[in-house]
Task: inverse folding
């Protein structure tokens, strides 16, 4: 069974631009969560989607948004990029909100 | 706020047991304790989880204190491939009326080095 895939793997943007990251969950998984990982802050929860509905949201500004499609694939968008948005963005899928999560390799975003 | 406290780093020798501690004094009765680990240049992977009783699986054992304010992840025989950052995490259940589902609260983890 294929694992969680994230595209692109690496991305370089400049301040003020926007970016869209994509996540394809494991087949059959309906829950997708997004995390931001930085050296100083560790993993921070962004949001979680289940059956196309956002079920939970972390403490991030409104510039960070996401959505989930009917096939459970998910995208997250960051608008008006700031230098501090440089991070590894991880996507995790699970069968449901209370099941173990399977993580993708992440997208490394660098904002210049 | 709910949080976990772990040592920044630990060191072990190959084929020896490793005990990774975690304090979670603010845990509530319905919060599960999860452990994940992150190998270099990879996303985290699930290790084990528990609520009150000790748990075993093929990867590790989880010992939970009777008062649930601390837990210990036990790797019975460390290998070089076990070198990773180990995260002890709360799985906070939904609060009534909040409309929210679970939330995983991550700390900074323990970086485990395994010496050959």
Result:
């Amino acid at each position: 069974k294929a694992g969680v895939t994230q595209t692109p793997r690496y991305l370089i943007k400049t301040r003020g631009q926007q970016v869209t990251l994509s996540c394809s969950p494991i087949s059959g998984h309906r829950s997708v969560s997004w995390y931001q990982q930085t050296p100083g802050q560790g993993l921070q929860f962004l949001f979680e989607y289940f059956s196309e509905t956002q079920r939970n949201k972390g403490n991030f500004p409104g510039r960070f948004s996401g959505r989930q499609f009917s096939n459970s694939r998910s995208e997250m968008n960051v608008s008006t990029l700031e230098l501090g948005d440089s991070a590894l963005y991880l996507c995790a899928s699970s069968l449901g909100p209370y099941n173990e999560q399977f993580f993708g390799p992440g997208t490394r975003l660098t904002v210049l | 706020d709910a949080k976990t406290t772990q040592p920044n780093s630990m060191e072990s020798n190959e084929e020896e047991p490793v005990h990774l501690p975690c304090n979670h004094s603010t845990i509530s009765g319905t919060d599960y304790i999860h452990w994940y680990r992150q190998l270099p240049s990879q996303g985290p992977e699930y290790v084990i989880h528990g609520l009150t009783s000790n748990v075993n699986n093929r990867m590790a054992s989880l010992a939970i204190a009777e008062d649930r304010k601390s837990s210990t992840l036990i790797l019975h025989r460390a290998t070089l491939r076990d070198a990773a950052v180990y995260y002890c995490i709360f799985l906070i259940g939904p609060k009534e009326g909040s409309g929210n589902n679970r939330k995983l609260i991550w700390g900074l983890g323990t970086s485990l080095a395994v010496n050959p």
Remarks:
- Chain A has a mean pLDDT of 93.
- DSSP finds no helices and eleven strands in chain A.
- Chain A touches chain B at residues 4, 33, 35, 42-45, 48, 50, 55-56, 58, 90, 92, 97-98, 100-106 (CB under 8 Å).
- The first strand of chain A starts at residue 5 and ends at 7.
